Amino acid sequence: xxxxxxxxxxxxxxxxxxxxxxxxxxxxxxxxxxxxxxxxxxxxxxxxxxxxxxxxxxxxxxxxxxxxxxxxxxxxxxxxxxxxxxxxxxxxxxxxxxxxxxxxxxxxxxxxxxxxxxxxxxxxxxxxxxxxxxxxxxxxxxxxxxxxxxxxxxx
Length: 155
What we know:
Elements: H1 2-32, E1 36-43, E2 50-57, H2 64-74, E3 91-97, E4 100-105, H3 121-135, E5 141-146, E6 149-150
Parallel strand pairs: 4-5
Antiparallel strand pairs: 1-2, 3-4, 5-6
């Protein structure tokens, strides 16, 4: 009888250890998955193609769209990519209203002498819009302004 109790105790201890290992693994998995995966499309330095970067955004005090746009403005993490807009470009205002993102950039966005900015303005803005809409399905339209004025005709 004592041998049977001893085997039961061993089974209980092993089961408890397996359960504890599972709970620890589950906790680590859930903690590491905190945040959202976002993609960024940047122009390639080498040719006319585009390169997609993937980044994980952790929860922030900032609106997720605003956080994403700020990250996009910081530029690529990959050396083989170029920025979409010149480094000096600032976001003057940004907000979402009725599924439309409104972004007002500083006049630096149209600086043709900036080496890191080789895309024509219209193409750069279209790539910016594509990035936003690719990551935020709830945004159906992106309106871009420069110093309070539409960025180009057709906006």
